[in-house]
Amino acid sequence: MKFQSTLILVALCILSTFSASVTEAKQCFQKQNAREATLLNKKFDKLNKNSPCKTGETVCIKGQVAQCDQGKFVLTSCGPTTECFALPLVNSPGTSIACDKSEDAANRIKLARQCRGKTG
Questions:
Q1: For 98, left (φ over 0), alpha (ψ -120 to 50), or beta?
Q2: Which among 3, 11, 15, 96 has the fewest CB atoms less than 10 Å away?
Q3: For this UniProt entry, which residues form the secretion signal (predicted)?
């Protein structure tokens, strides 16, 4: 009986470890989000207010939020000490465009690359 209990306990431990690994792999979309945010920020570096755009598109241009209205970007300044960035989402796949401090944006991307995007 003791052997059977030990065997069941070992099997449960193995199953638990496997389950945790699969769950972690499934939930680590944050690395991809960090890649996408980095690529978007590089793309934004090449844009200017006269760049072609599609109505409804939102990007960052020279640290400002830029929304396309009828084929032309309309720029809106961020608050003091912040600028526009593409940032990785932490709770679901994707990115967002937001105003943030440069060091905070870099840290958010760094944490997402490590699958540690949830900071609080």
A1: beta
A2: 3
A3: 1-25
